[in-house]
Amino acid sequence: MRYAGGGTSMLEIAVLGLLNESPMHGYELRKRLSSLLGAFRAFSYGSLYPTLRRLQEAGWIDEETPLYDTADPAGIGFAGRSKRGKKVYKLTAEGKEHFASLLAAVGPEAYDDEGFGTRLAFFAQTRSDIRLQILEGRRQRMTEQADGMRTSIARTRERMDRYTLQLQEHGLESADREVRWLTELIESERSTKPPGPG
């Protein structure tokens, strides 16, 4: 499932990752995606169901209608009839393989804000060598961003009003803070990395 930029949708990775943990119905999936992606970008509910349809068409997820016991007053159950017909989505064997291949891929999109946040959310399911590559790539990107901001502030400080300057300095502080945090994560990852393949 490729997109205009040639990359994979972060929403696709998030959906596959959550369903890899356990099957769930659409409403639960929406809630989990909101908490997962909401920290990194505004999540559009309208984009979820088209994504689910595309994943189904690709054969990576499947759906099942759960069975409910809707017993009558006499206690005679009529299993198999869903009161609301909620669909439960689950990963197929092919979907599990596809998700594993997505987690093993490292490219520029894994270092941007949205991509990094989504990949970080599934680090527990990612090989340690891949985790390190993503962390190091993100640190390099943030270091370059911080250096660029530092240069820009130094060059234009005289022409900026104090509010613009404070905004620029706040952005620089945030970038520097993230670089320090990433360095800690990288050091921790290296110190706990098991010998041999991750």
TrEMBL record:
Stored Pfam families: PadR
InterPro entries for the chain: Metal_resp_DNA-bind_regulator (IPR052509), Tscrpt_reg_PadR_N (IPR005149), WH-like_DNA-bd_sf (IPR036388), WH_DNA-bd_sf (IPR036390)
Ranges for domain Transcription regulator PadR N-terminal: 15-64
SUPFAM superfamilies: Winged helix' DNA-binding domain
PANTHER family: CONSERVED PROTEIN, PADR-FAMILY TRANSCRIPTIONAL REGULATOR
Identification of the protein by name: PadR family transcriptional regulator
Species the sequence originates in: Jatrophihabitans telluris
Record lineage: Bacteria, Bacillati, Actinomycetota, Actinomycetes, Jatrophihabitantales
